[in-house]
Amino acid sequence: MWISLEYIYYVAGIFLAVVAFLTLKDKANPKRFSTALFWGLYAVTFLFGKVIPPMYMGILVILLVLIPGFKGVRGGAYDEATADQRLASSKKIRNKLFVPALMIPLITVIGAVWVKNVTIGGTPLLDPKNVTLVALGLAALLALLTAMFITKDRGIRALQESRRLVDAVSWASVLPQMLATLGAIFVASGVGKVVSDLVSSAIPVDNRFLVVAAYCIGMALFTMIMGNAFAAFPVITAGIGLPLLVHLHGGNPAILAAIGMFSGYCGTLMTPMAANFNIVPAALLDLPDKNAVIKAQVPTALLLLVVNIFLMYFMMF
Amino acid sequence: MLTLIGIAIVIIGFALRFNPLLVVTVAGLATGLAGHLSIQKILTTFGDAFVTNRYMSLFILTLPVIGLLERYGLKEQSQALIRKVKAATTGRILFLYLLIRELAAALGLTSLGGHAQMVRPLIAPMAEGAAETKFGALNDRVREKIKAHAAAVDNVGLFFGEDIFIAIGAILLMKGFFDQNGIHLEPLDMAVWGIPTAVCAFLIHGVRVILLDRKIERELAAAAQNNQQDSNIKEGV
């Protein structure tokens, strides 16, 4: 392929390296050295992720985590525009401001749907396995160029402004990756089997409704623990779904799968472990309560879980 | 049973509000040791999984654009635009975004949205702006509630839309799982049986965001009344 996902990671790495450098120069940040080290190490994982052997990368990751663990990551000063300046410039540039913002999702979609099959000299243009992510990276770059053209400002300004947002998200930006790492450790240690043994030993298997409820609630609960319905699905379906609902009670496996996964998503809405959906957005929106997004979602998730149990019970047999 | 120690550490650590990164790392180390993995194996798993999952953090690439546009008044312009639409309310904006997000995801267009790309720069400012136009100045509590709901709408729309699309990762994962267990399933079957839940998710969350307008109004009225009482007390009434 011409543009692989690794190249997009290089761009992200360079971006983080610049953030680290700007942080180092920011005398208003009380912890500028440790904060710069944090972003610098994070940049290394993007730039040299494929080069450094996994075991050394593991050590680097633990060092990376220890810095915010001991409160070493802080924000600084950003030379922000005042509210009046922003209002004045919004009146001048007006709706053209939306163009770069909307370019990001639109170009990503175009890349993922149409450019997917484009080849040059027999080689695919975009990494076929990661079309959407590569398209997102390219969309961000094109949108940045357009934004610089519309605002007539320099690229370094964009990087300085982005440091304000990066510092707002702060260490939470690493949390989704660390949770995925924890999931990998859970799998390697066989946590799933222990959980599904526990659940299947606790429910009366002859009662169809209770088994359906146990499966849906089990999917939601295990997703809350793992932070990811994809990790919960094979465990709970192999533990409860297949042996009890499909083989013993003769349920339709397609319905089991469809509603089972959605029950897992109800769990995703309720857990801080799904940090990329729940915690990072709270940080990104400057919410002081990091669980505010989860709190907004819990009523929907619980109602929908009940709906799922009944839908599965009435449709599956 | 000892391998469940990681789950206990996560629950206790989150409850006691330790830094989540530390909690997760300690839980990972403890689970690995309880599961009889060697230190080398644990470190290798840490490194491997961290590098494999770097894609989760690629949203940072959108921050330079968003940061620059915000400096030049993107939020202010979003709010000015929404002020012109007389029918716009917080609830209706979020309802419309829920509809678009879920339909687009059902067509496989899952990247048409996102917290960094759409919610922070556009949806949240518009939802806030609509409430400001209707009720005047907002207090922090209400402002934060609106932002949290803007983020929630993105999640609900994405999650319950995407599984209707047959080529999405979740459907392929389920198909792979059943193939391994000797059951052949068509992706279309699983996608179709997801539709009832997808519709219910839209109805439940749609009603909730529409009701949000009334909730905001009530909360602002209650806050105003409290202020009134406070000032009455100060004045000795």
UniProtKB/TrEMBL annotation, chain A:
<feature type="transmembrane region" description="Helical">
    <location>
        <begin position="131"/>
        <end position="150"/>
    </location>
</feature>
<feature type="transmembrane region" description="Helical">
    <location>
        <begin position="97"/>
        <end position="115"/>
    </location>
</feature>
<feature type="transmembrane region" description="Helical">
    <location>
        <begin position="171"/>
        <end position="192"/>
    </location>
</feature>
<protein>
    <submittedName>
        <fullName>Permease</fullName>
    </submittedName>
</protein>
<feature type="transmembrane region" description="Helical">
    <location>
        <begin position="36"/>
        <end position="67"/>
    </location>
</feature>
<feature type="transmembrane region" description="Helical">
    <location>
        <begin position="7"/>
        <end position="24"/>
    </location>
</feature>
<feature type="transmembrane region" description="Helical">
    <location>
        <begin position="212"/>
        <end position="242"/>
    </location>
</feature>
<dbReference type="InterPro" id="IPR009323">
    <property type="entry name" value="DUF979"/>
</dbReference>
<feature type="transmembrane region" description="Helical">
    <location>
        <begin position="294"/>
        <end position="314"/>
    </location>
</feature>
<keyword id="KW-1133">Transmembrane helix</keyword>
<dbReference type="Pfam" id="PF06166">
    <property type="entry name" value="DUF979"/>
</dbReference>
<keyword id="KW-0812">Transmembrane</keyword>
<keyword id="KW-0472">Membrane</keyword>
